[in-house]
Amino acid sequence: MTPDLMEAGAERHARAQGLPAGASTESGGRTAGYGRPAVAGEVDVTHGRILYLEDVSVSFDGFKAINKLSLDIAPGELRCIIGPNGAGKTTMMDIITGKTRPDEGTVYFGSTIDLLRHREAEIAQLGIGRKFQKPTVFEHLTVFENLELALKTDKRVKPSMFFKLDSAQADRLADILQTIHLADSVNRMAGTLSHGQKQWLEIGMLLMQDPKLLLLDEPVAGMTDEETARTAELFLTLKGKHSLMVVEHDMSFIRTISEIVTVLCDGSVLAQGTLDEVQADERVIEVYLGR
């Protein structure tokens, strides 16, 4: 969920509760309150890469969380990232989204957008959407209202109060409801959804903003087998239309959705290839099994 969307949802919930604007910061356990920078233009992918990291490093209190990390993702690709705890997966996403600044290295969105020159809120508006493991939806709003709120381009309180969907926006919202398997739950309060449905709703909220790149952290953790299977269907539907980076531990899920898997260890790329290839790599076996 983008920072300005978190703020808008908090303001809307505050109004519904009769509180003054800014009184509520509830949004799935994280607070809001970021700036609203201008949106950049289209992403240049003429060089065949939508995301490019080279020799990225960052240390925390002497511990090197990311160590000369280099990788790239093609437009429309669905890339899975695996690795043991502490491998640097979350820190890598933090760097891409501007939450953490690296000590050195290069991070580009397309060929021309240097992400290290942008703030977190700006990066979200450039077309990079991030979903954390825990769903962050507005539980006191309906499924429809969550998606409607995500579509709005001006999140200030007064404009959002008088916003109305036009026919094209209504059609887009209806299409996304179908995509995320929630068309039959459009008027349900988000707080009554199952864990898996909340995950789908937040993905839908990101899709309403038409991101070029989606970063998804353990999206099927805690889901039922049926929800996991339907999430795989969802991701395969998104592949090609969007680029996806999926951090996940569920190998069966990964096998279903991804052609290329990147293994991180100690903050850098240990191996890359198909799931069968990386699972057969002796270095990967040693990292996971300790032998």
UniProtKB/TrEMBL annotation:
Top-rank taxon: Bacteria
Regions annotated as coiled coil: none
Region described as Disordered: spans on this chain: 1-36
Any one GO cellular component localisation term in the record: plasma membrane
GO molecular function: ATP binding; ATP hydrolysis activity
Gene3D superfamilies linked: P-loop containing nucleotide triphosphate hydrolases
Keywords of the record: ATP-binding, Cell membrane, Membrane, Nucleotide-binding, Transport
PANTHER family, per the entry: CONSERVED COMPONENT OF ABC TRANSPORTER FOR NATURAL AMINO ACIDS-RELATED, HIGH-AFFINITY BRANCHED-CHAIN AMINO ACID TRANSPORT ATP-BINDING PROTEIN
Descriptive protein name: Urea transport system ATP-binding protein
